[in-house]
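Exercise 7b. Backbone tokens:
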């Protein structure tokens, strides 16, 4: 009896161990201290720091390349979190960004985030003309059969983001959007809290990812 109980405990622990030992997807906690730090970001100082980022992300945060994200108009808390995740090896899909983030102080990250947040979203055409098609339905209504919530529920009707860890998508580079969703789908990128984006990306087809990428790239600012 004792042996059977011991074996039962062993197998239970073996099943639970991956869950117990799994590291968090991010070390960033939205404490009052973290929020105060981000709110203290100095966009003027951030502008100076951002000069070294312009080659990939553009002088004002509008990327000249589809391979790199535009940061203009991005929520400051989101940009701060991504830099912190790179610094702490919670985002490992881009070794170059990880190495660039390593030497940054927390205040540097807050200042950079404040600078980019102060810039207007990248320009683009309104996507309202596409309302009623499958992509618009996915954005505004989701897909109940696949348990997919509408994109707008988190990212907002106009794609400007919402709560602290949900990014603005409006005007984002379509190529970067697509590659990011593919990275979520494969698990190459895994710093999304509660696996939210990984679970969503796994439900989307390649065609849907491309359509969503084009949708948000065309939206932009007015």
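Sequence design result:
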């Amino acid at each position: 009896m004792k042996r059977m109980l011991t074996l039962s405990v062993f197998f239970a622990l073996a099943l639970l161990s991956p869950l117990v030992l799994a590291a968090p997807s991010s070390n960033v906690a939205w404490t009052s201290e973290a929020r105060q730090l981000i709110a203290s970001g100095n966009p003027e100082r951030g502008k100076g720091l951002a000069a070294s980022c312009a080659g990939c992300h553009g002088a004002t945060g509008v990327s000249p390349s589809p391979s790199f994200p535009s940061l203009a108009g991005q929520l400051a808390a989101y940009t701060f979190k991504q830099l912190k995740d790179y610094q702490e090896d919670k985002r490992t899909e881009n070794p170059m960004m990880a190495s660039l983030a390593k030497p940054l102080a927390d205040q540097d990250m807050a200042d950079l985030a404040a600078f980019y947040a102060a810039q207007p979203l990248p320009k683009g055409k309104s996507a309202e003309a596409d309302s009623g098609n499958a992509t618009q339905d996915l954005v505004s209504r989701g897909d109940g059969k696949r348990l997919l919530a509408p994109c707008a529920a988190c990212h907002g009707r106009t794609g400007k983001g919402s709560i602290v860890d949900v990014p603005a998508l409006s005007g984002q580079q379509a190529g970067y959007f697509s590659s990011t969703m593919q990275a979520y789908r494969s698990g190459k990128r895994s710093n999304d809290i509660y696996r939210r984006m990984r679970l969503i990306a796994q439900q989307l087809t390649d065609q849907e990812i491309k359509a969503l990428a084009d949708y948000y790239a065309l939206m932009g600012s007015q």
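Instructor comment: The two ends are 72 Å apart (CA to CA). Residues 41 and 107 are 7 Å apart (CA to CA).
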